[in-house]
Design brief:
It is a single chain. This protein is α/β, with parallel strands linked by helices. The chain is built from 6 helices and 11 strands. It has helices spanning 33-42, 81-89, 109-119, 165-177, 185-191, 213-226, and strands at 4-10, 27-28, 31-32, 47-54, 72-76, 96-99, 126-131, 136-139, 145-149, 155-164, 197-200. The protein has a 7-stranded mixed β-sheet with strand order 5-4-1-6-10-7-11, sandwiched between helices. Strands 2-3 form a two-stranded antiparallel sheet. Strand 8 and strand 9 (145-149) form a beta hairpin. Helix 2 (81-89) runs antiparallel to helix 4 (165-177) and helix 4 packs across helix 5 (185-191).
């Protein structure tokens, strides 16, 4: 069975959470957010190693029980997410890598299975995503509606996003060298000429960003455990 490496960028501050610590270290039930996330990844039999990328002044991660897990490697990130991912990729020895947000603790085994199956079918890779359901509006600088956007081919990008390791590293490096803002890993691959596939994932694979997301994530985790 083919094994993969996961890179989890966790060097961000998460300022929108308005918390006294980086959001990945906030409590979600009996664990921190990042512990839930890493536990979900490590539970999959095809993930052989998880590289956690933390900030240079991080003094939280080493105190967590999961930090001593034999399949976890820690490295230092940078001021931008793309730099942190690139640093994490330097620790990857497998041909394929998946990058997953530390603040997405509700990822399921079924979604990982679906992603692995589609991503490895070509060199373009794939990402988990959800089709847009709501009416989409484009605003002007004054937050007035400028246009209603056709939603037929719009998707919400999720993580994990999975690609061949070296092409992803080359794509991110090229984007950074051109001072291009890389909002996710797929955007780097797109700039390099790849066409990643979209894999329909679960809508409950939420990213904890706002304070109210904590309660929602706790509810989702509880319901997933019951199902």
């Amino acid at each position: 069975m083919q094994t993969f490496t996961a890179v989890v960028p966790a060097a961000g501050r998460g300022s929108r959470m308005q918390a006294n610590k980086p959001k990945q270290y906030l409590s979600l039930g009996d664990k921190t957010i990042i512990e839930h996330t890493l536990s979900r990844l490590l539970a999959h039999p095809q993930i052989g190693k998880v590289v956690v990328v933390i900030s240079e002044d991080d003094h939280y991660f080493s105190s967590l029980p999961i930090a001593s897990h034999p399949q976890i490697e820690v490295t230092i990130g940078g001021p931008e997410r793309a730099i942190s991912v690139l640093n994490g990729l330097a620790c990857v020895e497998t041909d394929w890598v998946l990058v997953h947000d530390a603040a997405r603790p509700c990822i399921t085994t079924a979604d990982l299975d679906a992603l692995f199956s589609v991503a490895t079918d070509s060199d373009d890779g794939a990402i988990l995503a959800v089709p847009v359901k709501d009416t989409m509006k484009r605003a002007d600088a004054q937050n007035c509606i400028e246009q209603t956007v056709e939603r037929g081919h719009l998707w919400h990008a999720l993580t994990p996003q999975m690609f061949p390791t070296q092409p992803l590293a080359d794509a991110i490096d090229a984007g950074l060298s051109q001072s291009i803002v890389l909002t996710d890993d797929a955007s780097a691959m797109e700039l390099a000429g790849f066409k990643p596939r979209l894999v329909t994932g679960r809508a409950d694979n939420i990213k904890v960003t706002q304070p109210e997301d904590l309660a929602l994530a706790a509810f989702i985790l509880q319901q997933q455990e019951l199902s």
